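Researcher: Go.
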Amino acid sequence: MFQDRPLTLRTLLRLFWFKITVTWALTLLETGLWVILPLLLGFTIDGLLIGDFGPLWQMVGVLVGLVLVAVVRQLIDTRIF
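Model: Structure:
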């Protein structure tokens, strides 16, 4: 794989651009879901105070999505790197 190329960062990025892109995309998605949790928690509390369960189900959906993204990202990180 590296017989005719020097082992540099540029070489690694050229050879593994797709795997690196997928890993970074999943990392950014996971981080975005973590960042939005406090906002959703506030909406959920406000909704439950008036008897609306819609925001609660939205938060449950985001938490399930967060778990799935985190597990997939860690599986891919382990397999790729």
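Model: Helices lie at 9-15, 17-49, 54-80.
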